[in-house]
């Protein structure tokens, strides 16, 4: 049976170029041979000799496996003898293939800076090299030009063999790109350039790499012997000659060296100057290069002075900087690739204050002062009303049959809903700024409108007081006539329900928003005036928006799109809902429940105005949609909340992330015609986006693709879909 199985494997290996299975089958063949050898040894009562790799696996630092049983049996399961091998040859990683067949996946470990360490990481890097050499075509192209399906095959092969962790795909493919580039460099330096005058040697691929197809090899050789490549090669050789302090690290890199030193030097802080010096020593601890030895001696002297307190290190001005000179921008010596100075030294992000920033801050302070003045005014009115109530109560005791209703206006006894604070763009200050050439004119015009509006409000209030005085019985409820209302029939029915049922019985609409909508169960309620104001197209609060998002979630469920779109509760993130840090943590917790590609819709109210933010955490991109016309600027507080949340998300998935989150303003959205429709427009934005299964909102609302304003009746009808659910709760 063994002879037959080996014959089949050899046969498949010979035709593997068409099946794209050459490496894995070759590895399986080696495993099969080893199993035969091991079984024979056991029959004779012998122990198979162990190679270097098996000794490493029996070291004190064993690999961790995703399978619990694998931790106790890993040595016997992964030990493979390579005694028959002569010379290094081409690495095929048979033990990795054997573990894949046994469904064992070692867990790759990382250090505090997110760099891979340990034996599992070393084996994974070797396996990535095997895949990069065998599965990526040998072509004179850049890595970015390699087909995506080839890269996906490499990632899937690595993911099947190792537990890489979240966010590991990018690092795996980055490593594959480097190893593929290094492989082409090795072929060029060792198998092409030394034989430029020997056409026979260049006519076929090297014996070590027989898997390279002849057509690919011939094309690659021709590209490497061209004049264009000769020029590029010469330039790179000159750059290479300028490097003064060459390290002697193996593939373990600085991360592996640091891990090794932490084992041999427990309790000692390993700084980058020590790493830099150790990386340039040979296996006996000597430094052959005189220039490097001179710098190493200087490092020793500086370290001694620091320990004695004669020299002080401060942030990026450490021992290595003193010895070698200042760092180049964005680069850091002695720690390996991919680590920036800001990451290593925990430097604060530099703040640049421009004139626009100062102007924004000035306007923000002015808005804050106005808000404080309004708050004081409201407090004064509250105190006056309290005194008035006290006076009326005293008066009723002195005068027989005194009716306070004749003197005071009727005050609603309904409880205050903390989520029912309304938002319109007519009063207060909108924190996102509106810059146009006629700002001064707009400001004067707005002040005039505000004065006229205040007069109208006063007149309405006086008229209401007169009507209340005429009504001696507060229990009499007049049902409004909604027949002429410009609204959908279902909305008219809901308003009648409010007038005939909720108001007479002093009821609220209480309901629960399920956990799957916002990530947690939440009980809330609507006041009758929330619904009547909604019917009148007046400003709306966070509860109304949240109820509509609940309806949209049902739409997503019916379309099987819940894995594509999620929602963030507007009541927990908008202004006055807590500190920026608290709100950032809430948003981060919501993002961490995504599968990676999901977008999250986040209606946000910076104060008296609704906007929509769409967060795509996987791509570190946020889209800003504002229904107000003109050049809009994202509210700084909202920006800080989402930026911090995405950083927390990156930490959660062990990803370094971009330096800055990408913010895109989609200015092609429909624009509200007046000052109270912002909440309705934000609800309609969300509806229109999810109705497109391709989620092509970025192109639809891009700058220059200006959408027309929504008609009033369809706008109300779209909002009504969410409110209709209230009757069934």
Automatic annotation (TrEMBL):
Gene Ontology molecular function terms on file: cysteine-type peptidase activity
Q: Which residues form the Ubiquitin-like protease family profile domain?
A: 524-689
Question: Biological process (GO) annotations?
Answer: proteolysis
For this protein, the record's Pfam families field holds: Peptidase_C48 (PF02902), Transposase_24 (PF03004)
Q: Where is this region: Disordered?
A: 34-91, 406-478, 708-729
Q: Cross-referenced InterPro entries, in alphabetical order?
A: Papain-like_cys_pep_sf, Peptidase_C48_C, Probable_transposase_24
Q: Which SUPFAM superfamilies match?
A: Cysteine proteinases
Keyword hit for Hydrolase? yes
Q: Which UniProt keywords apply?
A: Hydrolase, Protease
Q: Which Gene3D superfamilies match?
A: Adenoviral Proteinase, Chain A (3.40.395.10)
Compositional bias (Low complexity) spans? 65-81
Polar residues bias spans:
720-729
Q: Where is the composition biased (Basic and acidic residues)?
A: 431-478
Would the keyword RNA-binding be found if you checked this record's keyword annotation? Answer: no
For this chain, the family text in UniProt reads: Belongs to the peptidase C48 family.
Q: What is this protein called?
A: Ubiquitin-like protease family profile domain-containing protein
User: Which lineage is the organism of this entry classified under, starting from the top rank?
Assistant: Eukaryota, Viridiplantae, Streptophyta, Embryophyta, Tracheophyta
């Amino acid at each position: 049976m063994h002879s037959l199985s080996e014959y089949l494997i050899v046969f498949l290996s010979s035709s593997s170029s068409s099946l794209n299975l050459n490496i894995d089958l070759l590895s399986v063949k080696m495993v099969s041979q080893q199993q035969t050898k091991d079984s024979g040894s056991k029959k004779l009562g012998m122990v198979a000799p162990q190679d270097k790799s098996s000794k490493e696996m029996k070291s004190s630092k064993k690999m961790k496996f995703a399978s619990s049983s694998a931790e106790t049996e890993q040595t016997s399961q992964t030990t493979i003898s390579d005694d028959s091998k002569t010379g290094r040859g081409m690495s095929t990683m048979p033990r990795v293939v054997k573990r894949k067949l046994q469904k064992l996946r070692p867990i790759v470990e990382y250090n505090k800076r997110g760099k891979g360490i340990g034996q599992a990481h070393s084996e994974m890097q070797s396996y990535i090299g095997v895949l990069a050499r065998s599965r990526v075509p040998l072509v004179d192209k850049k890595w970015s030009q390699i087909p995506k399906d080839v890269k996906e095959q490499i990632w899937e092969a690595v993911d099947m063999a190792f537990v890489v962790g979240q966010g590991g795909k990018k690092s795996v493919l980055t490593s594959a790109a480097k190893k593929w580039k290094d492989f082409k460099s090795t072929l060029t330096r060792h198998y092409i350039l030394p034989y430029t005058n020997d056409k026979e040697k260049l006519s076929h691929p090297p014996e070590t790499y027989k898997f390279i197809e002849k057509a690919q090899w011939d094309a690659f050789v021709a590209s490497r012997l061209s004049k264009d490549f000769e020029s590029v090669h010469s330039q790179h050789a000159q750059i290479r000659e300028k490097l003064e302090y060459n390290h002697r690290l193996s593939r373990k890199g600085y991360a592996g060296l640091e891990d090794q030193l932490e084992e041999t030097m427990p309790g000692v802080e390993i700084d980058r100057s020590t790493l830099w010096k150790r990386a340039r020593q040979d296996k006996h601890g000597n430094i052959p290069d005189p220039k490097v030895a001179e710098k190493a001696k200087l490092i020793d002297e500086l370290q001694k002075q620091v320990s004695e307190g004669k020299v002080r290190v401060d942030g990026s001005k450490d021992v290595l900087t003193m010895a070698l000179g200042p760092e180049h921008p964005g680069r850091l010596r002695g720690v390996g690739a991919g680590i920036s100075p800001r990451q290593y030294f925990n430097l604060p992000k530099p703040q640049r204050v421009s004139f626009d920033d100062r102007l924004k801050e000035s306007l923000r302070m002015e808005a804050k002062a106005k808000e404080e003045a309004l708050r004081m005014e409201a407090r004064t009115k509250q105190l006056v009303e309290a005194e008035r109530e006290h006076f009326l109560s005293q008066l009723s005791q002195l005068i027989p049959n005194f009716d306070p209703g004749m003197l005071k206006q009727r005050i609603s006894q309904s409880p205050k809903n903390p989520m029912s604070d309304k938002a319109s763009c007519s009063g207060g200050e909108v924190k996102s700024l509106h810059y146009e050439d006629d700002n001064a004119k707009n400001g004067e015009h707005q002040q005039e409108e505000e004065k006229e509006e205040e007069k109208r409000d006063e007149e309405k209030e006086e008229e209401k007081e007169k009507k209340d005085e005429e009504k001696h019985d507060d229990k009499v409820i007049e049902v409004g006539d909604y027949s002429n209302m410009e609204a959908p029939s279902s909305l008219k029915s809901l308003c009648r329900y409010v007038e005939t049922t909720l108001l007479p019985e002093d009821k609220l609409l209480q309901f629960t928003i399920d956990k799957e909508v916002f990530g947690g169960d939440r009980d809330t309620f609507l006041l009758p005036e929330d619904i009547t104001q909604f019917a009148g197209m007046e400003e709306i609060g966070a509860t109304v928006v949240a109820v509509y998002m609940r309806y949209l979630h049902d739409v997503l469920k019916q379309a099987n799109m819940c894995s594509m779109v999620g929602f963030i509760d507007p009541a927990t993130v908008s202004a006055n809902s807590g500190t920026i840090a608290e709100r950032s943590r809430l948003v981060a917790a919501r993002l961490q429940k995504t599968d990676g590609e999901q977008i999250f819709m986040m209606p946000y109210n910076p104060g008296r105005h609704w906007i929509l933010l769409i967060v795509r955490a996987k791509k570190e991109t946020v889209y800003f949609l504002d229904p107000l016309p003109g050049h809009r600027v994202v509210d700084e507080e909202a920006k800080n909340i989402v930026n911090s949340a995405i950083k927390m998300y990156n930490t959660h998935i062990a990803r370094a992330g971009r330096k800055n989150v990408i913010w895109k303003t989609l200015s092609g959205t429909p624009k509200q015609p007046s000052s109270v429709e912002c909440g309705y427009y934000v609800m309609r934005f969300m509806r229109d986006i999810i109705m497109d299964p391709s989620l092509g909102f970025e192109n639809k609302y891009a700058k220059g693709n200006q959408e027309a304003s929504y008609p009033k009746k369809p706008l109300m009808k779209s909002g009504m879909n969410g409110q209709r659910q209230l009757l069934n709760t």
